[in-house]
Write a structure and sequence with these properties.
It is built from 1 helix and 16 strands. The protein has one helix spanning 177-197, and strands spanning 2-3, 9-11, 25-29, 34-36, 41-44, 48-55, 68-75, 81-82, 90-92, 98-100, 106-107, 116-120, 126-129, 132-135, 139-147, 159-166. The mean pLDDT is 93.
């Protein structure tokens, strides 16, 4: 078995031999998976099953040998995502508030080239659209990053990061200008009543 890599190669090993002692030639197929390089080198083109066929055409003393084939599996390559801790890692809840995923995830090269998709694993706390996160309530918002594979690459293992959404501080009631004037008049009235009693 082999694993796909852009421009990758492998050698036919062990090589085929003919009982006649005559030289053996090789062919590989399909060309979407592998091609024959120089000598016994096989070029990796894509993931799949590469069929290597050995032939011996014979000569004046020997008939052609019956071709024999061996299959080599070219496995899909893995791809890896990196998703750094979010900045800031704590957010204050705002009703209807949003924030951007920052920093975003990146994929090591080479990779499938598929777009990195984001989602929320805590949909009661937050939701995700593109790279925008919507806050629904205080709690731990777990963000997930995924990258799909293709014919040559496996899906990247999912990676996650948490953002803690904290409750907004309780607002301290304040008096308006008219409220302060009314409080002053009440205080003055209470003071006057106390003076009369004395």
């Amino acid at each position: 078995g082999q694993t796909y890599s852009p421009g990758g190669t492998f050698n036919i090993s062990p090589v085929a031999t003919a009982s006649s002692g005559l030289a053996v030639s090789y062919a590989v197929s399909p060309n979407t998976v592998c091609t024959l390089g120089s000598g016994t080198t096989v070029n990796i083109v894509g993931a799949g099953t590469c069929t290597i066929t050995a032939s011996q055409a014979g000569d004046g003393n020997y008939n052609a040998a019956t071709p024999v084939a061996q299959n080599v599996t070219i496995a899909k390559a893995a791809q890896t995502l990196t998703f750094p801790a979010q900045t800031p890692a704590r957010r204050t809840f705002v009703d209807g508030g949003t924030f951007s995923i920052n920093p975003v995830a990146t994929s090591a090269s080479p990779n499938s080239g598929s777009a990195i998709a984001y989602s929320s694993l805590t949909p009661l706390v937050c939701t995700v659209s593109g790279t925008t996160v919507s806050m629904l309530k205080p709690g731990t918002c777990t963000l997930a990053a995924d990258q799909a594979g293709d014919s040559n690459y496996l899906d990247a293992p999912q990676v996650t990061q948490d953002v803690v959404i904290v409750p907004a501080p309780t607002a301290i009631p304040t008096l308006s200008e008219w409220g302060l004037m009314l409080m002053g008049l009440l205080a003055a009235g209470l003071g006057a009543r106390r003076l009369r009693r004395l």
